[in-house]
Amino acid sequence: NSRVLIIFFSKLTHLSIFLPAHLQTYLFAYLSDRSRVAAAILTVGDYELQVSLSEAVCRLTPRRDREQRANHWFPTSDISSAFCDIRDADFEVDCRRFLNFINCYQGDERRVYTFPCLRALLGSTQLLPPKDEKLDEFWIDFNLGSGCVSFFVDDPQGFLWVSIHVPKEEVECSSIQLTADGCTGAEAVLQLTTANPIMHHNIRGQTLELSFKGEYHRELEEAVGRVLNVPEKLSHTHTHTHTHTHTHTRTHAHTHTHTHTHTHTHTHTHTHTHTHTRTHTHTHTHTHAHTHTHTHTHTYTH
């Protein structure tokens, strides 16, 4: 057990440089007690640290003993069962499922928000998810405990995954735009602007754009607000145009054309700006001709 702890202390030292001082202390103090380590998985608030703590518990506990011990470590049988579903041979994939489950299970008390990403752009360069046939989604984690956005990307120059961390201290502003088209459906696009460039190999940029399915935009707003604590904007654009034409054929004709254009622009910082533009054009022309010696022509234009 002491040898395993030494290995993990060495491994976690690299991870700990991304953590605030109080979380570093939290990490090493709790590693010596498996029950505390298991409890910390639920509360530590950083996905990568959750993975390392989960791996520590798995390595320190023989598989035959995990079910019995898990029932004491975790508060519900659902969480215990999910932990016991982690297979050593597929640890990364199974641990992702376990952590996604327990983080979502905690509802409003969760300290890590995770969403599947459609695409990620650093500046104008697309970042690719790790190449793993068992990996079903490109996951983005919003970590309340460490106060950062983190995710893994493909490393074209190596065999390991590379993680990108965006600490809240580096984020100058964020915006969430809800877009829609007839082909791909609604998308929630999060854009983060950082004070200093984000580096990934020879790629650098100060703008990170992350796109998600539109169904996540409410939770995404909550995650950004809680984790980054920076002003955010939400933008919606809708345009409606209606044209009505009525023609009546008797001795007079009426033509009415109504054009209504509504443009709504909402900007949250949290500030709401509503702009309504209405244009009404009414043209009425009445002409009456009588076969007497006089003619009356009345024209009204509004």
Automatic annotation (TrEMBL):
Chain ranges of the Synaptonemal complex protein 2 Spt16M-like domain: 112-229
InterPro entries, per database record: SYCP2-like (IPR024835), SYCP2_SLD (IPR040560)
Region (Disordered): 236-302
Domain of life of the source: Eukaryota
Name of one Pfam family that matches: SYCP2_SLD
Name of the protein this chain belongs to: Synaptonemal complex protein 2 Spt16M-like domain-containing protein
